[in-house]
Amino acid sequence: xxxxxxxxxxxxxxxxxxxxxxxxxxxxxxxxxxxxxxxxxxxxxxxxxxxxxxxxxxxxxxxxxxxxxxxxxxxxxxxxxxxxxxxxxxxxxxxxxxxxxxxxxxxxxxxxxxxxxxxxxxxxxxxxxxxxxxxxxxxxxxxxxxxxxxxxxxxxxxxxxxxxxxxxxxxxxxxxxxxxxxxxxxxxxxxxxxxxxxxxxxxxxxxxxxxxxxxxxxxxxxxxxxxxxxxxxxxxxxxxxxxxxxxxxxxxxxxxxxxxxxxxxxxxxxxxxxxxxxxxxxxxxxxxxxxxxxxxxxxxxxxxxxxxxxxxxxxxxxxxxxxxxxxxxxxxxxxxxxxxxxxxxxxxxxxxxxxxxxxxxxxxxxxxxxxxxxxxxxxxxxxxxxxxxxxxxxxxxxxxxxxxxxxxxxxxxxxxxxxxxxxxxxxxxxxxxxxxxxxxxxxxxxxxxxxxxxxxxxxxxxxxxxxxxxxxxxxxxxxxxxxxxxxxxxxxxxxxxxxxxxxxxxxxxxxxxxxxxxxxxxxxxxxxxxxxxxxxxxxxxxxxxxxxxxxxxxxxxxxxxxxxxxxxxxxxxxxxxxxxxxxxxxxxxxxxxxxxxxxxxxxxxxxxxxxxxxxxxxxxxxxxxxxxxxxxxxxxxxxxxxxxxxxxxxxxxxxxxxxxxxxxxxxxxxxxxxxxxxxxxxxxxxxxxxxxxxxxxxxxxxxxxxxxxxxxxxxxxxxxxxxxxxxxxxxxxxxxxxxxxxxxxxxxxxxxxxxxxxxxxxxxxxxxxxxxxxxxxxxxxxxxxxxxxxxxxxxxxxxxxxxxxxxxxxxxxxxxxxxxxxxxxxxxxxxxxxxxxxxxxxxxxxxxxxxxxxxxxxxxxxxxxxxxxxxxxxxxxxxxxxxxxxxxxxxxxxxxxxxxxxxxxxxxxxxxxxxxxxxxxxxxxxxxxxxxxxxxxxxxxxxxxxxxxxxxxxxxxxxxxxxxxxxxxxxxxxxxxxxxxxxxxxxxxxxxxxxxxxxxxxxxxxxxxxxxxxxxxxxxxxxxxxxxxxxxxxxxxxxxxxxxxxxxxxxxxxxxxxxxxxxxxxxxxxxxxxxxxxxxxxxxxxxxxxxxxxxxxxxxxxxxxxxxxxxxxxxxxxxxxxxxxxxxxxxxxxxxxxxxxxxxxxxxxxxxxxxxxxxxxxxxxxxxxxxxxxxxxxxxxxxxxxxxxxxxxxxxxxxxxxxxxxxxxxxxxxxxxxxxxxxxxxxxxxxxxxxxxxxxxxxxxxxxxxxxxxxxxxxxxxxxxxxxxxxxxxxxxxxxxxxxxxxxxxxxxxxxxxxxxxxxxxxxxxxxxxxxxxxxxxxxxxxxxxxxxxxxxxxxxxxxxxxxxxxxxxxxxxxxxxxxxxxxxxxxxxxxxxxxxxxxxxxxxxxxxxxxxxxxxxxxxxxxxxxxxxxxxxxxxxxxxxxxxxxxxxxxxxxxxxxxxxxxxxxxxxxxxxxxxxxxxxxxxxxxxxxxxxxxxxxxxxxxxxxxxxxxxxxxxxxxxxxxxxxxxxxxxxxxxxxxxxxxxxxxxxxxxxxxxxxxxxxxxxxxxxxxxxxxxxxxxxxxxxxxxxxxxxxxxxxxxxxxxxxxxxxxxxxxxxxxxxxxxxxxxxxxxxxxxxxxxxxxxxxxxxxxxxxxxxxxxxxxxxxxxxxxxxxxxxxxxxxxxxxxxxxxxxxxxxxxxxxxxxxxxxxxxxxxxxxxxxxxxxxxxxxxxxxxxxxxxxxxxxxxxxxxxxxxxxxxxxxxxxxxxxxxxxxxxxxxxxxxxxxxxxxxxxxxxxxxxxxxxxxxxxxxxxxxxxxxxxxxxxxxxxxxxxxxxxxxxxxxxxxxxxxxxxxxxxxxxxxxxxxxxxxxxxxxxxxxxxxxxxxxxxxxxxxxxxxxxxxxxxxxxxxxxxxxxxxxxxxxxxxxx
Length: 1913
Hints:
The protein is of the alpha+beta class.
């Protein structure tokens, strides 16, 4: 570049060299393109000017003094402080008075720095703030003085001068060499030469000027405590060492007036040299014989450096703990929304971002995954005028892609070290993705764990490419090859020395004419950043032959790229290996390598057979000739030398790559094609990754399994012999199951069920030996997850190889047949028979192709279908030489969690192995702790890129290929990283086969509808993927999806289906596609709106007017446009970066859209399994909307009921407990009857307050459950019901409290009345007893005599004082009251009544223990019954049986009613008699008035009334007798007797006052507490029974039926079938009694002990407090009694109760002794009360009045809830609450014959269930559902017969699930009918001959298991 000095000076500014106007030409090595890239044009020109001695920043120049004044020197910097911290510190004016810094030089080794500020004033500010501290250390800060702060020296040669070292040291030369070779110490690198003279000066020559400049730039050099002075070496350059000799880049001329430059620089001796294609202008030959060459590093040194480099990058990226091979597929597939939206990443995040983007097939992932070169970034941020930075940038101006200087980190290093941290399965996946992006992958790499190089073979095993197979097929045909099996020729590229030419870029040019960075190079982002651990790596890329007509090479080529320098970064073994597998070595070098290292170079290239040397510098021909002469004839390889230069001009890169390509192609012609697998095997290296133990063992096992397949399978018949279970039989089962779910004839269902069972048996017997071996092999290694994965992968590889061998020939044969068919059809003379024969051949050929297409997915499909049959048939796997079900599920779970795809629906047969899928998904759900999943599904036409889209979105593993590569429905789970706060923890990705499949032409429409329904039903988000821009073509497909969504919507009209829908347009090229397609899209939406509206009207949902009402859809946000997936042409076609980037961005959009659904809840995989099953059952039927039932909804409802029950029980228990405590307290405080009304009102008022408070808490708890539930979008439909149920309980409790308070008030009134009446008698009896005691006091009587004397005295006194006529306890019998009341009710029929009563009185044997089932004792005969004309013709026995059933049902209801009256604890009077009789008569009247086939005549009514009256009077009399016995005046006198007795004995025996008082107080307390304790026992028993007995109706029904089954009790079964409520109530009562009063009464004793101890402990506390109060006093009776009763907390006692103890207190001498005696007496009393309460007499009293009988009613009602039963079969409604506004449903309907249903005329038992009936065409009589068709008249309607399927016309409040599979929904009742068929035949008198034999095969265990499964959703 020529510059006129005067012109420059005049236009720009002053110059450092101001004298002269000469133009000086300087030849200087400069990398123009590299420099501009790094620092920009302006800054780069400034650098060139600086090198020329010209002012870099034109304008007035600041002198050195001014620079010095802006500079300070800082010493004493503490360790750990880096340059960045120091810069920030001195920028802070607050910290140190600093300011903006223009430059800083930091000497970390000497802990010092030189800092130059932009402003002179800043220096003074800093100096004034001294002393200044950093990290506690005081800094030594001084001004820089007048020395120039930055005196830069520019190196013009690679030689430096060194002085200042110690002379006379014989080892100094070696020390200097070691020091300046150590980059960390000196900044140096490899030394070419070193000389030391006697004057203390050394000349050190490096291999490049850049290294010399770096050494000079280092501020301080210290060696052996001596400070070295290092400067550039300046001397005249002789002609033989012209600058061009050292130049490795094109020359650039710079013109400058620099007179001091020697003239020799212009003298050039030139000559022309011709040598092949070398024609360059070069200086005279250099004579370098005196240069001392440096030796090559040893293998160990290479390994040590490689290890250090690996450690460095591992530490930098935070991967130390992940090395080696610890990153799994599951970890990388985890979704991190936060990371996806970040732009700047920490070093530790880079590997994870890199891997996720590679999985997303982002072509630029390796180069731009957020990786930032810190050194470059810092340099770019530095001010342009900073001279020091310019010089530092000089280091980066080389274009050598092996450069390792600088502080930055290369993306390639991070990429390669990250791959080493990936486990083998992840590596395979990554290599597949890399090949799609056309990115090279490592083939040989240093492994730190081995401390050696490892050959990476395993990840290449699953990599398959398409290429021409020239040797076997025409060139126009391609075949698939495993990349290791592809016949290739190999070319290896390597650098020797430091050639100034990008080897990687050259290779990229050879591979493709497009800009494709297959190999990382300087043109990549951060391509010039230094590399470390990538050195020594051999990269590989294979170029197959396909696509372009003009191929670059005739054969497939494998390219190998040796990163770094072949002589310094590779061990001998690696070079030997590479040389053996290489056909050609392309070696790039420069002239200096030929000159200086010719011997090493010769030795290196002799390892290879053919070498192409590329000289990347201007080179003398003589130099090359001299080098070639050194190659001896015996060792000389075939060598061809070319240069990157032509004469003095560097060749165009494209031209040169084309020249090189032609040369390579020519040389390769003589090479033989050979696969890489063969080449590697020939080398027999032990360093292959496939030699690892797990891999090698798995390969052996897989080979054995595969060999067993080849032994039994043949070409075109692999599936048939290896996987017959699914290939042959699953299709039959699938067809049969579909028929079963659509069957209308119940007999045919039994036939199909038996057929399915038979096929399953055949399946299990047909399992191939290979499958058994495969399963056994998996089971043997199940505890080694990696080995399981290796085994699966190896077998997959072997099977794929087999397919690639067999299928092409079968396809060709099929094509030939088709060509023949076309020829035949075009020939008019062809016979139809020939054409049909050929069509059959084509079909067979097609079937052979399908049969041969056996892959690992078919093995797992076979596995699933085998275990589906094992589970369904309850078979023992060991009988078939199979592992256990649990073990196989464990293996599958492990694979799924690790990222394996799981097949849901079999693609070959469109069949769901539901039991297998549910078992596996439930186990996976457990393994991931039942975490919630967002489900994303995809739909689209065949080959529209659905799997490709999912793989790009999530990095999933779905297979991709043109045509129908996905069959059925598959899923894969992706974890969400924990740092994302999302309502789900996993994303379940669902892939499906394409719509409009060409293989399903005959069933396309139905199949597409079914597929769309399942996919739309599964996905929370559904993507509809369409190819192209024409909306007309996709309209039909979209409408299919719309109908699928409508079906889901209509199947549950109450709920929002909560779906999100996206429309994805792929292959849209136009960037303005959204606007261009707007019109078509609007038309499409109108079509969808119309379809949605019409379907809504048909289904009765007229509010649906638009598609968006069915599903969330926004035409702006929910429509995507994606470009073509591929970019470029084969074989270098790669994934379009725009496609992958856009899809990557959409992932966040999808998940954010899901988050916008605030009330959306997500399913666990266990829930998903249930949902899949429901959807499948729905699509199997003909009417999805009618048949679909959401089992998950039922499950959620059950859970809601359980939770609500818990809340309400807790609410109720709190209130009841509080009421018991307060009522005992308040009523105990009442001393007379007048206080009772106020007390009861006060109690009710306080309880209302407590009720309101607890209601608020309960409602809050209910709301919290609904708001925080994981299923809140389903629960919302019941939230209002739950709130109302809570409020209803509040009202119920309020009423109960009021009623109970009134009852307690009345009871207390009676007790007070009895107490008042008995007080006078008690006083008289007390005085008379004491008189007798005084009379006999002096007699010497023993205890027995005293007792007898007291009894005689008490009996005598009682007869004298008590008037038994007035106080008689036993009331008159209520029988007369019942008779009188009945005569009042039936006043018009008194004669018949009197007659019937007389008959009853004469029947002495008439005893009724229970009304239920007592019809035979009622005396009713046929003459008492009225029959319809139709029923009259029936057999009398049959008619009487029907009458008996109806009346027994009524009697059962009446007995329940009587029990409610007997539950009252008060005396029963005429009022209660009249009340109950009126209720009973109303129930009996229903039998008389009902418009049925039968009704009671008046005689029958009267007989039944008398029968019931007899039972009631007996029970009422017994109740009253028991009441008077326990609560009458005699009961009180009896209690008082104990107190008097104690005083009598004390007086006679002259006991001490302390003992007597203690006894008296104990008796009083005991009498008072007994009732309170019994009340508390009643409450405690109720609470415990709630905890013990089932609290949910579902659980209750299960336990009842289990007990009936185990008991083998037919009669109880019949009772349950006819009146389930009554039987279950009896069962609850029995269970309660068994629990409480078992043989040892253990549980009841515990309850009694607990309650008694609570009360008596309270008494003991009061005694102890009294003693503490009066221990030093002698209290009066009033004082002690008052203190005693004040301390009671459990039950208040009045002081008046202790009036008879007063006189004994005056005689107490020792209060301590009294307290001790009282404690003993109280303890004995508590023990006695416990004994008394658990006696049979007391237990029966508690059972009757306060125990289970009254409590069972409440407990049963709480659990049983809804009393409704199925109108057809009598099964109870499953809901545990009385509900309004929601439908009744039963979880398991019975077989109709259970209730006696029979076919008309032939009297055969009906063997269908309600579930079957409502989906069939069967009809029923009006009377079957109680004439609901004619409710008012209660008789048959005009139709007389009704279709079961139309049941909702008359029973709209019931929901019966349609299901033709009776085995599935009613297996328990099938077992019942089969087991008791003979008893049923006798009981119902019907024919049982049609009961299928298969029902007899159902075991009791199977029946109970089915029962538990149905009732335990």
